[in-house]
């Protein structure tokens, strides 16, 4: 804790020291002069001046103040100042002074101007300027004062600078206005100078007029001589000029003809070249137009055709794929149906085979007997089919031309023969079964040809008797 307290105390002391130094440090701005006065340290030194920077001002033994460097304009209306000829002149002027920043002069300003305001400094400088202007004017003649302003300003500046430095000031600018005098001497000098200038101008004018007249006469003489000589020379020159003109006209016509010929040739060459370039440009334009038309036709015809072809090809491919799928489905359906029919037929044939096997077993193993039983089972169907052979025959009437003489072996008529042949055309059951390789037993309908013929004749006789009765009726 003691160490912490010691550290805090040191920091506080250091902070107080910094604040004290900051409070006693004086900075000097650029438009002022800092003056530190009091106990400075040097022997015979009453103040220390500085322009810019800063200084530490110790309390009690030292203090500080500022001198303002602002320029002070002073207008001087000097009246009745005696010149070297004891002629009183009026010399109005404007002076600009300010505190000097030279080291030695600043020391004088600190000793003599510190504590004065600008108005008091202006009054002090005004008195010094009045005195020095009277001294300078008294040493110069009035002609020099009026004529040589630069010398007057230089003399005043040199005299004032010495006196102003004594109080810490410096002369910045001097502007002398119009100088006048009470006796009118300066005006008389002006009039004299003007009259002298006028007389000199008149003399110069007269001399110039004289020289002009002489020069005019000499010029006239020379003119006449020169005119005569010029006329002679002109005549000769005219003749030579006419020759030259004629020669020039000839040369000109030759050159014009040559130029026209060259121009015509150049024009034809240029025209041909222009036509060639024109034709070339037109050819390029036509080629470009053809390329453009080709591109347009390609875009308008070929591209839509290719698009349509691709569309048709895509549609055809889709339709072909659809047909392929449909046909494949139908084929698969037919295949499955045929496979089902085959399986059904196989099952049917297998059942029939099993039934035939059972039938053969039941008839004692006699296959011929089993076949006969199957045929007998189908006999009603066979008879029905034989009846259908003649059932659709439509016989409205039968006309028989018979002479009454029997040509047959039995002595029957034509009608009996016709019926016999008609019945004979029907295949007997025995023959029908024989054609399929089955021999039927006799009890299944074996016919006697003679009995059949006799029965057919009896039927025919009955038919003829019925027809004869109908005719008699």
Descriptive overview:
With 473 residues, this protein is α+β, with helices and mostly antiparallel strands. Among the domains are: 48 residues; 105 residues, no CATH class. The protein has 10 helices and 9 strands. The strands form 3 sheets. Strands 6, 7, 8 and 9 form a 4-stranded antiparallel beta sheet that branches.
Give a summary of the structure in a few sentences:
The chain is α+β, with helices and mostly antiparallel strands and 473 residues long.
Shape: elongated
Residue-averaged pLDDT: 75
Roughly how many Å apart are the termini?
A: 179 Å
Q: Assign a percent range to the helix content.
A: 55-70%
Low confidence ranges: none
Based on secondary structure, the structural category is alpha+beta
Q: How many strands in all?
A: 9
Major sheet summary line: 4 strands, antiparallel
Order of helices and strands: HEEEEEEEHHHHEEHHHHH
The percentage of residues in β strands lies in: 5-15%
* Rg measurement, Å: 84 Å
Count the DSSP helices: 10
